[in-house]
C-alpha cells in the first residue's frame, strides 16, 4: 500500500500565520483537520497516511526538520499543509514543488486543481522552488513562477515527491479565512482526492 506523509505546517512553537479573525494559526488549523484527510485517504482511496509534526518527528522547527519527519515515513509523497497571508486583498490558491522534480510537479498540479475547484478560488498556479537566485531567474525566464526563498530545505531534503499547499490567503483575507472555516470538510475531501490522483500518477 502506498503511503503519504501529511506534514502539519510550522510547529507548536512558531505556529505560522494566524487566521484573519485571529482564531487559529496554520499549525492549529491543520492539527485539527489533517486527521480528516488521513481518514478519507485510508477509507475511500486505500492510501495509508502518516501525520507528522516537524518538531516532534523531525527534531526542530525548520522546513528541513519537516523534511526529516517526512523521510522517516518512507512515503511516496509528502504534502506540507499551510495557508497564506499577505495583504487583505491578496487571494487565490498556489502550490509549491521543487523546480526539477517531475513527480513533484505532477502532484502539485493534481492538488492545485482539486483545491481551486473546491474553494472556487483564483488559480495562482504552481510555484517552482529553486536552490538559488540564479536558478530562479532561469526558471522564471520561461514565464513560470519561481522562488528561491520559500522552504528550500524542505524540498532539497525530502527523498520523495514533495509539495506544499497554500489553499488560500486565510491569514490576511477575511473572505478566504471564512472559506477555510466554512468549507473545511470539503477542503479536506478535495485534498484527499488530489492526493489520490497524484499517487496514482506518480506510482505508475
TrEMBL record:
Gene3D superfamilies: Zn-dependent exopeptidases (3.40.630.40). It is an enzyme of class 3 (hydrolase). Its EC number is 3.5.1.28. Keywords: Hydrolase. SUPFAM superfamilies: Zn-dependent exopeptidases. Residues 67-196 form the MurNAc-LAA domain. GO terms for biological process: peptidoglycan catabolic process. Signal peptide: none annotated. GO terms for molecular function: N-acetylmuramoyl-L-alanine amidase activity. It catalyses: Hydrolyzes the link between N-acetylmuramoyl residues and L-amino acid residues in certain cell-wall glycopeptides. GO terms for cellular component: outer membrane-bounded periplasmic space. PANTHER family: N-ACETYLMURAMOYL-L-ALANINE AMIDASE (PTHR30404), N-ACETYLMURAMOYL-L-ALANINE AMIDASE AMIC (PTHR30404:SF0). This is N-acetylmuramoyl-L-alanine amidase. It comes from Akkermansia glycaniphila.
